[in-house]
Specification:
By secondary structure, the protein is mostly helical. It has one domain. Helix content is about 55%, strand content about 10%. The chain is built from 10 helices and 6 strands. The strands form 3 sheets. The chain has a two-stranded antiparallel ribbon with strand order 1-2. A two-stranded antiparallel sheet has the order 3-4. A two-stranded parallel ribbon has the order 5-6. Helix 2 runs antiparallel to helix 3 and helix 3 crosses helix 6. The protein is globular, with a radius of gyration of 19 Å.
Length: about 260
């Protein structure tokens, strides 16, 4: 069976996420070491506030994740253009690459503009994104430990993605006037309104990008008839931990139907 025309874009995503994944590995390693030291000092659970350096690392993971999403969207649009009638005609006002590239800030609106301009496809209704979070984030009561999940769909998914993108934008441009809203599982704020990113927010930024990417590929494939065929789960995806990232998320239902060699 011929490979799906968009397979290579998904194959490239683990590489685009390499920096984010490596940074998250450092976060998790340091958190484990800190918890062990605390338990050794008599803290039974090892819990406690992370030092400032950990918070900076969490933000770095989010920044790298957003950069990976930008690279993926450009890759996907370029790869799909040859399979959609009329999409190869250039749109100078909505360039894909270069200094005028429309997804340099990959907000949900910019992503939608890109795919609508070339394919008349808006991916946002196809997004159904699950993240882990604490009960405190969801309801304002209970523990901060990430013991539950929440799912963002459609417009809410777009807003969740935008909150993560604003973290990157604020870091890159020191834009305090356009701060992200509190978004359970992705962005938290202190009582004074300052950004507060925990390790699960960092991990969820990667989880969000992978789900968004896969669901956009699925939706675009349904929209453009020539983008047919079955996608294939690759070893690099397992090595990147996608089987764990995607476990119990809505996207695995489509993966079971449309992919081969998957672990679900």
């Amino acid at each position: 069976m011929a490979a799906h025309p968009l397979q290579e874009s998904l194959d490239n995503l683990p590489e685009y996420l390499t920096d984010a994944s490596r940074l998250l590995g450092i976060v998790e390693e340091r958190n484990a070491e800190l918890a062990a030291r605390r338990r050794g000092a008599g803290n039974r659970t090892g819990a406690g506030q992370p030092p400032a350096a950990h918070k900076s690392l969490n933000r770095a993971v989010v920044v790298a994740s957003v950069g990976a999403l930008e690279a993926f969207c450009e890759d996907l649009a370029i790869r799909a253009r040859g399979h959609a009638p009329g999409a190869l005609v250039g749109r100078p006002w909505y360039a894909i690459e270069g200094s005028r590239g429309i997804v340099q800030t990959p907000s949900s609106n910019n992503i939608a503009k890109l795919f609508w301009t070339y394919f008349h496809y808006d991916p946002r209704p196809d997004w159904e994104l699950q993240v882990t979070c604490g009960w405190q984030e969801l309801s304002g009561t209970g523990t901060n430990w990430r013991g539950t999940t929440t799912v963002y769909r459609g417009t809410a998914a777009a807003e969740a993605l935008d909150a993560v993108v604003k973290v990157r934008h604020g870091f890159a441009h020191q834009d305090r006037a356009n701060a992200p809203a509190k978004t359970p599982g992705l962005v938290d704020l202190t009582p004074t309104g300052k950004l507060s990113l925990q390790s699960h927010h960092a991990a969820n930024s990667i989880r969000l990008v992978v789900q968004t990417a896969i669901q956009t590929v699925h939706g675009l494939s349904r929209h453009v008839p020539a983008l047919n065929g079955r996608l294939r789960w690759k070893k690099s995806m397992t090595e990147a931990g996608w089987d764990q990232l995607l476990s119990a998320t809505p996207v695995i239902n489509d993966i079971r139907t449309n992919w081969t060699k998957h672990p679900f």
